[in-house]
Amino acid sequence: MIVIALSGCIMGDELYLTSKEQYAIGWILHDINDSTSTNLTYSLNDLAIYNYSYHYPSSMPDTYYNFFTLLSPVPNGMTEETIIFGNQLAVPLNRTYYTMGINPAQENYKTYWSFFNVMRINYLPDVDPYSDAHMEYLNSIRGYRAIKPETGDRSLVYFGKAPFTPTQILIENSSIKLKNYLVRGYHSDSYLWRNTGDFPDYLMPKYQIFLNGSLNSSGNLTDVNKIWNYTSLNYSLVENGTYTVNMTIPTSYEVLVRIEIGATF
């Protein structure tokens, strides 16, 4: 098997800082022999075109960092491992991505070609911009579950665009839970993600649950790695009474600096 990937993304390519178009094209060839054609052709009609538009606040953050790559399908029996290439931007710049991935026989692969793009934004100059900044994802934090480029697909993708929608409190199977990601983006399938690392306590997303006026449970809305995680709230309703749920989500993001959510039932 040979994987061929052609991309305009080259580390150190200074032109990328102002480039408005990016190309990422790949093929997977099987059973290659002397009669295999060496001409790999495509046309505009074969490409998927994604227009990315960035709408970050006018106040300059400490860091903008744009990651993107085209990930080839993973054969059955192999792990999903990749290197994400990053290009740092001086300012957000709207751009168009032309992508194409000719998929092989899918019964031999557990993923498709996937186009992965994520923006890392940091408004906190006193923290590590590469580990503690917030990131905005589309579809999945997993690169192999991001965008499947399909022939003729034409999409508009907005990053940093309001409105941002906080999560919702729900009751499910006699438990208090959160419906989805702590903060969703402009798209229904985009969301903010944050590694709180060594953040001080006041920057951690938190919840409190009161029963009949007394504090019954509290904690951070993060996982064991201190990453934002809405599934960390799963409180069983063990007795009747009046429940009050309070949540705070400090985003350190200028459009939405701090979210406060409350519910009583």
In short:
The chain has strands spanning 2-7, 21-29, 48-54, 63-71, 86-88, 95-101, 114-122, 134-138, 154-159, 165-166, 169-172, 175-178, 183-184, 190-194, 206-211, 214-220, 234-236, 243-253, 256-264. It is mainly beta. The radius of gyration is 22 Å and the shape is elongated.
Brief descriptors of the model:
5-stranded mixed β-sheet; Immunoglobulin-like; mainly beta; 265 residues; 5-stranded antiparallel β-sheet; 19 strands
Mean pLDDT: 82
How far the N terminus sits from the C terminus, by CA atoms, comes to: 59 Å
**Main beta-sheet annotation:** 5 strands, mixed
- Strand runs, count: 19
Percentage of residues in strands: 35-45%
Helix count, per DSSP? 0
Helix share bin: under 10%
**H/E element string?**
EEEEEEEEEEEEEEEEEEE
Strand order of the largest sheet: 1-2-6-3-9
Q: Determine Rg (CA atoms, Å).
A: 22 Å
Please outline the helices and strands.
Elements: E1 2-7, E2 21-29, E3 48-54, E4 63-71, E5 86-88, E6 95-101, E7 114-122, E8 134-138, E9 154-159, E10 165-166, E11 169-172, E12 175-178, E13 183-184, E14 190-194, E15 206-211, E16 214-220, E17 234-236, E18 243-253, E19 256-264
